[in-house]
Write a structure and sequence with these properties.
The chain has 168 residues and is mostly helical. It has helices at residues 23-41, 49-79, 105-121, 124-153, 155-163.
Amino acid sequence: MIGPKPGIEPKPGTGPKPGLIPWPPVIYAAAILVSVVLGLYIPLPWIGDLLGDILFAAGWVALFAVAVLWFTAIRTMIRARTTLNPNAVPDHLVTTGPFGVSRNPMYLANTLLLIGVAFVSGIAWFFLLAFVAAFVTQKVAIEGEEKILAAKFGKKYRDYAKRVRRWI
């Protein structure tokens, strides 16, 4: 096992440190840009007729869920008096609200945004790149954030991580 022994908390300032670039917004913005460009120049076939109408409606439901997730996650973080900056070390471990269902509700919302836009617009690239963006976000941001949280909050974070899934 890499990291401190269970029950032994690291000294302040000795744990992993956040990076300088807020990768998640950059990753999702790039996925949106690439999806639009590929949709214009290399369009993929999309489902039509009744199933297409159902996906269109599901896309609007997904976009509504995105707004709810963003709003409740931000409100929960503000009430907990912790940072909204993905590169800052949080002041408090937030485990309530949407964080009680997903350890990363804002990244989940960003992924759901791409899926919802795919269903509404019919641009399949959004759907495909949603999963690419989620994977890259996990590797570039989430795994590092989890190390920082484990170093700062120790057992409290590890117990939370056992109870609540990373995505859904």
